[in-house]
Amino acid sequence: MPLSKLQFKPGINREGTNYSNSGGWFDCDKIRFREGFPENIGGWVKLTDSAFLGIARSIHPWSALDGNQLYGMGTHLKYYIVEGGATIDITPIRRTVTLGVDPITTDAAGSAVLIITDTNHGAAKEDFVTLSGATGPIDDIPVSEINVEHQITELVDANTYQITVTTTATAGSVSGGGAAVVAEYQINTGLNTTIIGLGWGADPWGAGGWGDAAITTTVGTKLRLWSEDNFGEDLIICPRDGSIYLFDTSVGISSTNRADEISGIAGQVDAPTVAREVMVSNNDRHVIAFGTNDVGSAVQDLLLIRWADQEDNLNWEQLTTTTAGTLRLNTGSEIITAREVRDEILVWTDASLHSMRFLGPPFTFGQRLVAPNTSLVGPNAVIAFDDFTAWMGVDQFYIYSGRVAPLHCTVEDFVFKRLNRGQLQKVYAGTNQNEAEIIWLYPSTASEEVDSYVIYNYEQNIWYYGTIVRTAWQDRYFEETPIAAGDDGFVYIHENGCDDGSTTPATAINAFVESSDFEIGEGYHFSFIRRLLPDITFDGSVADMPQATVTITPREFLGTTYDTGDASAITRSATVPVEQFNDQFHIRLRGREIKYRVESNQLGVFWRQGIPRLDIRPDGRR
């Protein structure tokens, strides 16, 4: 009998049942499709040399005038600049104060906890403070451990907090430090997990002692997110619903050169004191604040948009001699995010999408409603590039190329049913233009952190998905391939090699693709499979003997259990490079339906599935 070719439809389809997708692929992890055929994705290696603090929620590339290649990166604890693999802390300073006499007290004998006294310190647990000028030692704790940066471990009250050093106190309850202790506070840290609810049991439940009054300093319910853009070689950053800051690159990139609050810089006029998001309009060189406070008011208006004078990031005064101005959106209750595309700025509210365009004097910018009743799951769930913009809504994907339309997705039900809706702000969209892919990183219901992804290949118009822990993404810029931030404090260069470079030595990437059930023969009779002729290439592997495992699993009828005892798992080895092979494998499988799976978990392996063939013969009705 002739051999039967297994030609599967490209992409993953889970919108129907397993059987209704017969002839297609149904499940996968860490694979993509090239010209319709599945292959495992590339590996990743570390870009940064040392770990940063916190979970990264943004990555922004730009170049200084001296040619330095820089990345801005915001975490829930700090803001960094990545330069040449080094992470430099430029987190803005909130307050610098000289403390009272002997403001440092040891906790108890044998304890490494220090209690710092500062009236109305305004700090929150996990904030960072740098102490200097302390004299000592204090209760045998050397000042070299005191006059450094600390992370606040506990809040005692509005006037005192605790830090932890290395050396333990000898006597306990000893005060010291002298009269010249200076405390330099960085801006309050943000949340790493969205808090749902404000009542009993809401995080951070249990902080402090039983029966103690709640410490409400900097209480928030939303994730710490950042927006940033470069104004020339300088960097403008904004923690969501916080102040706008300017980092002057010309002063030098070091931890002693911090980003400064724009509203406090000499020469500023009417600069906003709070904003949801900030952007630089590249076509006309305006700094734009979204969801900001109006001139003369300290109250944040979540639908108000303001912009500074053209080519001047400090002058926000609205005069006939400046192009500074404001406009307010009239649909929705809050701005979610904004993205600049080729000739317009798209602004999402919680209920609509608006287009903001540069008009020139006297209005500078105008806006129009593009689409009502359009949703967006989070500020980073949208990606704009080339001629279109795509984003994840609360129950479907959308695309905009002049008008808004739903983006048909063959794994939509699968993705949205397993999306952790309590952590939607963590969804992060990016592109991999080398592979014509849009990727959404998202947290599944099994995790509070991002652990999954879904990809739309816009050239092949197909979808596939997988699991990975990446919290921020940036397409190729200085690197030839994308980079992404892990939850381990490192940034990784993706599509680099074949393996997982987060460990030393590197570990293998587990990748697989599995078909839907399909009938062999007419489905009424049993069929007998006696041979498999695989078609896999290992070109691109670096292992001496790369391997992939093909598993064929039969069952009698749809709905019955798979006959795993009769499954055939075949490991294929080849010497690099191998374009394809046609060796036969003699197997013995019997059933009415089968599924086909190829996978690998070996170091240095790259594989691509072609068109395998089966030797199938009729084998009776039972």
Short description:
With 622 residues, the chain is mainly β. The strands form 13 sheets. Strands 2, 3, 43, 44, 47, 48 and 50 form a seven-stranded mixed sheet that branches. A five-stranded antiparallel sheet has the order 16-17-13-12-18, with no helix packed on it. The model is unreliable at 198-219 and 572-582 (pLDDT under 50).
Q: Name the poorly predicted regions.
A: 198-219, 572-582
Strand fraction: 35-45%
Q: How would a textbook summarize the main sheet? A: 7 strands, mixed
What is the residue-mean pLDDT, rounded to a whole number?
91
Describe the protein's architecture and organization.
There is one protein chain. By secondary structure, the chain is an all-beta fold. Among the domains are: 4-25 and 510-618, Jelly Rolls, CATH 2.60.120; 94-186, Elongation Factor Tu (Ef-tu), domain 3 (Beta Barrel), CATH 2.40.30.20. Helix content is 1%, strand content 41%. The protein has one helix and 52 strands. The strands form 13 sheets. Strands 2, 3, 43, 44, 47, 48 and 50 form a seven-stranded mixed sheet that branches. It has a five-stranded antiparallel sheet with strand order 16-17-13-12-18, with no helix packed on it. Strands 1-52-45-49 form a four-stranded antiparallel sheet, with no helix packed on it. The longest helix is centred in the middle third of the chain and has 6 residues, at 412-417. The protein is globular, with a radius of gyration of 29 Å. It starts with a strand and ends with a strand.
